[in-house]
Structures are given as C-alpha cells and as structure tokens.
Amino acid sequence: MTSRREATAMMNPSLSPMDYEDPLTIEEQRSIALRLGPLLAGVGLLGLGALHRSLVPDQDAIASPMQALAALLVSIPILRKGIDGFLARPPKDLTEQLVVLAIFAAMATGDFVTATLVPLFLEIGHLFEERSSRGARAAIEGIRNLSAKTATKLADGHEEEVSPEAIEVGDQVLIRPGEIVPVDGTVVSGRSSVDQAPITGESLYEDVEPGKPVYSGTVNLNGLLRVTATGVGGQSVLGRVLALLREVEASKTPVLRLLERYAAVYLPIVLAVAGVTLFTTGDLDRAIAVLIVSCPCALVLAGPAAMVAAMTASTRLSILIKSPGFLETVADIDTLILDKTGTVTTGALTLNEITTTAEGVCKKSVVRGAAICGYSSLHPVSRAAVAAAAEMGIEYARIENARELPGEGVEARTEDGVYRLGRQGWLEAEGLDFDGHAAITGPGAWVAKDDQILGYLSLVDRPREEARDAIEMTRRLGIRRTLLLTGDREDVARNVAEELGFDDFVAEVLPEQKLDIVRAEQQGGHKIMMVGDGVNDALALSGADVGVAVGIRISEVALGGADVALTTPDLGRIPIMLRLAEFTRWMVILNAVLGTAFSVLMMALASTGVIDPLVGALMHNAGSLFVILNSSRILRFSQPQEERGPYVGPLARESATDETKAAA
Fold it and tell me: Is 468:499 a contact under the CB 8 Å cutoff?
C-alpha cells in the first residue's frame, strides 16, 4: 500500500524549473531537426567562407559562393513565408517581408554575412516561441498524471478493480488510505484526512466524514472511505480543469509584436521611395541604393537582440523566461492576481498562538503534549506542533506507536498519562468536559492530558516576509489593482489580504472559478498577471495575459501553463521582473526608432545621389551595430540598490503623477 508521504508526493508533482523540460513528440523532434539542420549548415558554411577568405584573400571566387549558399540555406523558410505573406490578401507576415527585403538587398551587394545572420536571428526567435507553446501540453499531461489509474467499485457487496472511466454517477467506490480519489463524490461512511491542496489550494488537510464532498485528483491520507460518485470523467473537477485548459490554450491569440506594427508602415514607405526615385531620376543605381540602405537589419534585430539580452540577464536574477514575447506584454500589465497558499504564504502551518485553559498549566506544557502526540504523525497540525517544540527547545517523549484516528486526532500513551491532540468533538466523545471553554475557530487543535484540557494551539500559514513590500513596489511600478485568490476560508483570506495590503480578495474558489475571475477582469479591460505555484492555479496561469509560476518546487502543471518561472519563492522578483520587462521594451522601441531614423537618413542621401550602392552597403550595417550595442545595455541590468531607487518607466511615472494630483 502507498504510504501517506508517498501518496502526498504523488499528488504534488513538482520539480525545479531548472530541471523542467517540455516533452517532445516524434513529429516535433523531426520538425526541429529539419529546421535546425539548414541553420547549422548555413552557419558552418558562413564560417568556412570567412576562414577561406582570410587565409586565401585572392581566391574570393571560392569563398563568396560558399557564403551565398549559407545565406540561401538559412533564408529558404523566411523567403517562402515572406513571399507568401506579400502575395496574400490581405498581406500578412510583415516581419518576414521586411527580412526578405533585407536579404535581397544584402545579397545584391554581396553582403552574404548580413544575408545569413538576419534570417538566422529571426528563425531562432521563432524556435523559442514554439518551445514556449509546448508548455500547454505539458500542463495537460501533468493534470492527466494526477488522475487515479484504477478505482475500487463496490457492486452487490463485492469489490471490483476498474478504470475510473467505468465509474458512473451513483456508483459506490472504496478509497483506501494513500489512494488517489478517482471521482468527485460524497462520503457515505468512514472518516479520513484528505489532501485537497492540488484542487483547492488549502494548506490544511480537510477532515472528511459522512456527508462531506471529496474531489477527484485529491489524496486520501489515513482512513477507509466509501464514496458515492457525483461527478465522473469530464464532469469531475479534474475533468473540467483539463477541458478548460485545452479551451484556454486553443483560444489564445498571438501577441501583436512591436516589429509587426512598425513593419506595416515601414515596408510600403521603402518601396514607394525607391519607386519615386526611379521614376523621377531614371537612375537605377539610385533606386538600388535606396533599397540597400533601407535594408531593415536594425529593425529586424530591434526585438530579437533585446529579447536575447533580457533572457540572459533574467537568469542571473532567478527569473526564467519561457516565452520572449511576454516581455512586450508584461509592460502593459495593470492588474496583479496572486494565489495565496505557497505563493504569498509559506504553504506550511506554523504555531501562531498558545491558549492555556487549565490552572497551573504553562504554554510549554501545552506544546509538549502536542509534540508527544504529533511525533509519529504526518498531519500538518502534528508537524507544526513538533516544529514548535524544537524551536522552543522543549524536550518530550518520542512516542512512535501513537494511535491516529482519521479526521479526529492523535492519542499517545506515556508513563505519566494519556495525551490527546485533536478536534473538540472527538475529545468530548472521549469524555472530556468543555463547559466553560470558549469556542475557538480557525486552524488548530486542542491538547489534553488524561481528563484535563491543557489548552489550544492556534496555527497559521504565515505570509512571506517580503510579500507586503513586493506588492507595494508593484504599485509604484504601475500596477493599479491587486487581487488575492484562494481556496481557503473567507476569514483566512481576509486576514492575509488586509495584512499584505491587497485591494481585494476572493476565497473558497476552485480552479475553474479562478479562470472565470481572470476572464472577468480581462473583459473589464484589464491586462492580467497571474502568479501561482500549484495545480489549482494552472488554468488561471494559462488564461492570464502573463502567467508566472513561482517557488523552488513548482507544480509541473503550473509550470507548463506559465510564461515565466521564478526559481525562488522570493516575491521580490516580481517587481524586478516588471522593471526588466519595461526596460527591455523601451530598448526595443529605441532600437526600432533610431534604427529606422538612420535608415530614413540613408534613404534621403541615396535618393539624392549623395551615396552610391557601394557606400550604402557599407553604411547600412552601422544601424545594426547600434542595435546590438544598445541591446547589450540590458545585460548590465541588475536588482536596483535601495539608495539608487527603482527604475522608473512610463507606467510608474504615470502612476506617480496620478498620486501627486490626488494629494494636491
């Protein structure tokens, strides 16, 4: 039988983002190999040609064809796509059309290095984007792995092991300790603790008894349950999450790249200027010179060069960017939604308060009694009690054969008495008198010795130390609204939201409800960044404009649906990521504007005959050099020091202006 620890581990499939790899189908491996082959061959031929030219400069007739072949090998996919896009009605693939123009102009002047490197950069960018799109399938596969592989069906008093798909609504199933719940259902008999964190995100195990619901994909920890199925297959919570995740990914629209917007204007202008020059002067050399100097190498490199630099810089900051396109989207984000458990909180219960209820009993005695009971238990309350005893330096008897009653508590017998840790109802059933004791709500447990109630341990899933400052910093960077989502109870959610300064919160939500909230915010005109770490966040991460998976041990499902992974649970990385994204976006804009301005100046000089095609071929590379050098500034991006203050972009400036006006 699977142990409780093993079952819980199975139900929380997680991995370090550094070890994460999207699965590749055979077809995808073949497709990537077919695309990488010509790219690698082209780069190799380009290098051989350059080497031959440097060693034997008087035999250019050999080096030039080698480099021309290199340019052709690398350019074929882009040429085909660009020409098809130009002929389409309406025209499409404007970026590829710009690259085709650059390739033609470069090859016409014998600049085969440029003709090879420009399409190479673009194709590498495409491969990065396609890799990020495979995360959706990884998330879907991760959800499938959460499902039980078999179920024990009860029919006519007999047990029958069947596939979960064979269970129908109304059937009864038997769920043993350590088994994954195969269907949504209602408990008919038995008591147990169920780990529902993958579905609800609640950090405390749910104690279930007859009449309580259980959900597919959760794990039964320590009791035998008989459950009547109420939701099976696609109608279960897990099935609906899977279907919605597929729907979200299918409905996602590509991000409109900054380069596409520039290309839509730039390309017609270039062709018009070249045509007018030829028509008014009748000088073909001038028209060719216009096309050469307008070669949009700088414009084509504006995005990829900055994106590659940003992805390199981000790895030093524990930020892994799966999709380069997110860097353009994130600068428009105005609403930040965060999951509670494991994201803004530590995800582990810790001792919050000790209440003594017996005269002459100190707080250490209460913790000692709880630790004696909890030493051999894996329940979060027990682990919190043991951790508290260790932190307070309390010695206690290590009882390894304590009796654990599923959904009730733990009983440990020692030489000086019987200790109990658990629910009030169970202790009352054991004969303890609670008259005169005030009812205590919230996560925690009562502690008793023999027939005396010692006290109560109040537990809490504490917010991360940096959470409040991180949320406040995002406001300074332009985030206008912060929202906390959790499957936890309303009172817990309210306390955390108020403590950390959230604008609003929504409690007791299931995964599909988180997605509904994200969509409602988007329909209200907001751009959403969703931050989470668990299976229950995967839908919202995938449906948000930007999804961020956070933590050292991120759920594989959450990571698959996210655009970015933070390899540390430090929420302070979120404002750093916002700064990096905005800084990168402005570098892209600066690259595009100045690169275009340089090309326009060169076009004016070429159309008036100031420079000829040969000089133009030499000059147009200056714009590309500027783009590369300017983008390298991103490599020096680092976490701002307190005395320097944060990077202030346009969103932050606008926010600060609004605050100043409001204060006035």
Answer: yes
DSSP letter for 471, please.
H
* pLDDT number for residue 368: 93
**For 563, which DSSP code?**
S
Question: Which CATH number belongs to the domain containing residue 511 in this structure?
Answer: 3.40.50.1000
CA distance 340 to 489: 11
Tell me how crowded residue 271 is: count the other CB atoms within 10 A of its CB.
14
In a domain, 62, yes or no: yes
Could you list the residue range(s) of the whole structural domain that residue 430 is in? 347-463
- CATH code where residue 214 lies: 2.70.150.10
Do residues 194 and 217 make contact, with C-beta atoms less than 8 angstroms apart?
A: no
638-661 confidence digits (pLDDT tens):
765 443 333 333 334 344 444 444
**Same domain (yes/no): 82, 109:** yes
- Quick check: 557 pLDDT over 60? no
Give a yes or no: residue 24 inside a domain: no
Is position 598 within any domain? Answer: no
d(CA 256, CA 592): 15
Q: Please tell me the total count of domains within the chain.
A: 4
Q: How far is CA 8 from CA 11, 142, 177, 206, in A?
A: 5, 15, 11, 13
Q: Are residues 87 and 38 part of one domain?
A: yes
Q: State how far the alpha carbon of 238 is from the alpha carbons of 232, 271, 510, 553, in Å.
A: 9, 55, 10, 21
CA distance 378 to 394: 20
Are 391 and 413 within one domain? yes
Q: Which residue has the higher pLDDT, 393 or 125?
A: 393
Q: Are 332 and 469 part of one and the same domain?
A: yes
Cα end-to-end span (Å), the chain: 68
Q: What is the pLDDT of residue 245?
A: 57
pLDDT at 220 over 50: yes
User: Would residue 627 count as lying in a domain?
Assistant: no
The count of C-alpha atoms lying within 13 angstroms of the C-alpha of 549, restricted to the half-sphere facing its C-beta, is 35
Summarised one tens digit per residue, pLDDT across range 34-85 is 777 778 888 888 888 888 778 887 777 778 888 888 888 888 887 888 788 7
**pLDDT value of position 316:** 80
Domain co-membership, 220 together with 291: no
Q: Is the peptide bond preceding residue 90 cis, with omega within 30 degrees of 0? A: yes
Q: Quick one: 374 and 451 in the same domain?
A: yes
Order of all β-strands in the sheet with 409-414: 345-356, 452-463, 444-449, 417-422, 409-414, 403-405
Among the candidates 226, 248, 270, a domain finishes at 248
* Judgement on whether residues 485 and 340 belong to the same structural domain of the protein: yes
Q: Based on the domain organization, do 117 and 210 belong to the same domain?
A: no
CA quadruple 238, 243, 249, 253: dihedral sign: negative
Distance CA 423, CA 428 (A): 9
Q: Which residue reads 């350019």 in tokens?
A: 75
Cα–Cα distance, 258 to 186 (Å, whole number): 52
- 456 and 432 Cβ atoms separated by less than 8 Å: no
Q: 403 exposed, middle or buried (CB, 10 Å; 0-12, 13-18, 19+)?
A: middle
pLDDT of residue 656: 42
Amino acid (1-letter code) at residue 344: V
Residues with Cβ < 8 Å from 79, sequence gap 6 or more?
100, 103
* Tokens describing residue 641: 């020091």
